[in-house]
Write a structure and sequence with these properties.
Blueprint: H1 5-18, H2 30-42, H3 52-74, H4 100-103
């Protein structure tokens, strides 16, 4: 006879812990949950929809790749005030309109047109 479900779950948790997999709880509005459900299906037309975990994992990986490209492009530029290579995280000129730290973070922030 097979293992009881509690025992199988314990084995799964141990395996995930060994692989460095952690649990993340997020709070989503009704609208966000509906968008997630819809997108999981629309991203795999004619196939089994993505699971929510898989969909979010892929979004994180895609954003990581996009951010690396953005940072690489920034690294070819310099701050207008101090001349340091971008992105600059701290500067004594923060607040000066020519300092990248003042407004430059807008170039790397997540953006959405969704209200």
């Amino acid at each position: 006879m097979g293992k009881p479900s509690a025992e199988r779950k314990a084995v799964q948790r141990a395996r995930e812990a060994q692989q460095g997999i952690g649990k993340l709880e997020i709070h989503l509005s009704v609208r966000e949950r509906e968008i997630l459900r819809r997108n999981c299906a629309l991203r795999r037309p004619g196939r089994e929809p993505y699971g929510a975990d898989e969909y979010v994992e892929l979004l994180i990986l895609q954003d990581g790749e996009r951010l690396e490209r953005e940072l690489k492009a920034l690294h070819n530029r310099r701050c207008g005030k101090c001349g340091d290579k971008l992105p600059v995280t701290e500067c004594c000129h923060d607040g000066d309109s020519q300092c990248w730290v003042t407004l430059g973070w807008h170039e790397t922030k997540l953006k959405t047109n969704v209200s």
